[in-house]
Amino acid sequence: MSASPDPVQSSGPHSADEPDGSRPRLPESIVIASELWIVVILAHIVTLVATYDQQRAQYLDMVEGMVKDATAEQRDLITSSGLFIGSLVVGALIQFGVAIVLILLTRRGYNWARFLIGAISMYLVITTFFTLFADVSPAWAMVPTVIGGVAALGAVVLFLRRESDTYCKNMATFRRESKRPKEPPLPSMVYPGGQYPGYPAHPGQNPYPTQNPYPTQNPYPTQNPYPSAPPPGQYPDAGRYPPAPDANRPTSPPSGGYPSMPSAPAESQYPPATNSDDEAGDDDPNRQHPGGKSSEQA
What we know:
By secondary structure, the protein is mainly α.
């Protein structure tokens, strides 16, 4: 069965040619399982129409014991064909509506919906298996029943495949990322037309001045404030340098040379040393002379 066109359909989640941050692509397994459920719904409708008489007979047998004490009007209302058909249609619409909603949510990547529709599909497979051993009237009503059961079994297998599970997980991540506030892009430094805002250019006129706004004259003096060295063999001007030293002041030592420093006197030039004891002892009356006499005795 070919895949029907779908705005979120593709061949796998996050394929190689899919940019990061984009919506995951719907896998073929979920697409085919959704189409198999259309077969299940159509087969169930055919089965309900084919087994209408048998289901009505079972219904009357069920309510017969419930309306024994009821009045004739109540019994006619409960066993009327209109009430039975209405309840049959309402029940079928509820079943089909729940299945369709779950299929749509599964195609949008909700994992819990995938598990629920898979469980319902498995329930239909089990009921179809037990219907094979039941008495169905008419007998040809077993054909759509078996077709619906086989389609439900294929849907279970496809809903539980790995790519279906990966797609639902990627969709959950995509929904979380899409709810986050996006940061505003940085303003571009290049303005359209090469113009900066606030200075609109006039037609045919250059918006930028061609004249240099800065003065071209050198603010610093070009003359060297310091005197240059004189050429070899020439003396500088007298006004540029301090005056020469005094002419009376000798600039060179005298021809005879400077007097030498006086040398130390020779040893013979110094007076002989005197005994301090002799000098002091002459005045001492008690000083003993070498002969054993005092100065007074002497």
